[in-house]
Write a structure and sequence with these properties.
This protein is of the alpha/beta class and about 290 residues long. It has two domains: about 160 residues, Periplasmic binding protein-like II (D-Maltodextrin-Binding Protein, domain 2, 3-Layer(aba) Sandwich), CATH 3.40.190; about 90 residues, Osmoprotection protein (prox), domain 2 (D-Maltodextrin-Binding Protein, domain 2, 3-Layer(aba) Sandwich), CATH 3.40.190. It has 14 helices and ten strands. Helix 2 packs across helix 12, helix 2 crosses helix 14 and helix 4 crosses helix 5. The N terminus is likely disordered.
Length: about 290
C-alpha cells in the first residue's frame, strides 16, 4: 500500500467515525429531586441507551437552580424542565396562561442567553393546582377557582410553605380572582398534604397537575377558569454542544415526549409514590409497553 492510498483510507475511516456516536464519549442525563423528575430522567436515559448511547446518570441533583447550574457548567448534558418553571424561576417573567407563548418565550431566551435547546414539550401539564375530594366539591357546589375563591372562608387549605408567599401561589390567586381568604391555612411537607386531605384535616390542598394521587383518590382539580397559572409542560433541555455531538438524540426524545400525557404521568407517578416501585422499573415497563425498547 502506497502512502497516498493509506492516507485516503485513514481519511475515509475518520469520516465514517464522525457520522455516528463516538464510542468513548458519554451523554450525561440529569434530573431534579422529586418523583416525576426522577422518572423522566430514567425515561430519557433508558430510551437513549436502547439506541446505543453511552449514558451517565446524575439524577436527584436538587432543585431548579442546582440542575440549571449543572447544565450551564457542562456537568450534565440535559435534564427535564417545565416551561412555567423556566419562565418564572429562571427568567423572572410574569405568568401567562398561553402555553404556546410560554414555550416560545423560554425556548428563545434559553437559546439566546445560554446556548441551551428546548426540545418538543410533552402534552402533559404539571401545572400548579388546587384539589379537593368529590365529597367536598359536592357539599359546597364548587368546581372552578372562581367558585372556590368565594367559598374559601368556609374551608381549610393544606399548602406547602412557598405557596403562601410566591407570586404564582396564594398571593397571586388573591390578586387574579379576589377572595381566597381561607378559614385556615395549614402547612405540610409536600409528601403529606394528600394524607391530610383524606384524613379530613383540610378541605383543599395544593396540587400539581400530574400528581399520581389525583388519579388514585379520584380527586377534583379546580378549573383555572381565569387562566392564572402558566402551563408547566415538560421538555428535555439540552446543551447545544451535546446536540452537535449527538444529533440523533433530538428525534428519539421528541418521540418520547409526544407520548407523555397527563393521564400517563399520573399513572406512572402513582406507581412510584403509591405502588412503591423504583423509577427505573416504572420507566422500563412503560417504554416496553409502548414498544420503544
Amino acid at each position: 500500500m502506497n502512502r497516498r492510498t493509506a492516507l485516503g483510507l485513514i481519511a475515509s475511516a475518520s469520516l465514517v467515525a464522525g457520522c455516528g456516536n463516538k464510542p468513548h464519549e458519554r451523554l450525561i442525563v440529569g434530573s431534579k429531586n422529586f418523583t416525576e423528575e426522577l422518572l423522566l430522567g430514567e425515561l430519557y436515559a433508558q430510551l437513549l441507551e436502547h439506541y446505543d448511547f453511552r449514558i451517565t446518570r446524575k439524577l436527584n441533583l436538587g432543585g431548579t437552580q442546582v440542575a440549571m447550574a449543572a447544565l450551564r457548567r457542562g456537568d450534565i448534558d440535559l435534564y427535564p424542565e417545565y416551561t412555567g418553571t423556566a419562565l418564572i424561576t429562571e427568567l423572572k417573567l410574569k405568568p401567562t396562561g398561553d402555553a404556546a407563548a410560554t414555550y416560545k418565550t423560554v425556548r428563545d431566551a434559553y437559546a439566546r442567553d445560554y446556548q441551551l435547546v428546548w426540545l418538543d414539550p410533552a402534552p402533559m401539564n404539571n401545572t400548579q393546582a388546587l384539589a379537593t375530594t368529590q365529597a367536598v366539591a359536592e357539599k359546597y357546589d364548587i368546581t372552578t377557582l372562581s367558585e372556590l375563591s368565594r367559598a374559601a372562608p368556609k374551608l381549610r387549605l393544606g399548602a406547602i410553605p412557598e405557596f403562601t408567599t410566591r407570586e404564582d401561589g396564594l398571593p397571586g390567586l388573591q390578586k387574579a380572582y379576589g377572595g381566597f381568604n381561607f378559614r385556615d391555612v395549614k402547612l405540610f411537607d409536600i409528601a403529606l398534604r394528600y394524607r391530610a386531605l383524606q384524613a379530613g384535616n383540610v378541605d383543599v390542598v395544593v396540587a400539581f397537575g400530574t400528581d399520581g394521587q389525583i388519579l388514585a383518590d379520584s380527586l377534583l382539580v379546580f378549573d383555572d377558569d381565569k387562566h392564572f397559572w402558566p402551563a408547566y409542560q415538560v421538555a428535555p433541555v439540552v446543551r447545544q454542544e451535546a446536540i452537535d455531538r449527538f444529533p440523533a438524540l433530538v428525534t428519539h426524545l421528541n418521540q418520547l415526549s409526544a407520548r407523555l400525557t397527563d393521564k400517563t404521568m399520573r399513572e406512572l407517578n402513582y406507581a412510584i409514590d403509591g405502588g412503591k416501585q423504583e423509577p427505573a422499573t416504572v420507566a422500563h415497563d412503560f417504554l416496553t409497553g409502548i414498544g420503544f425498547v
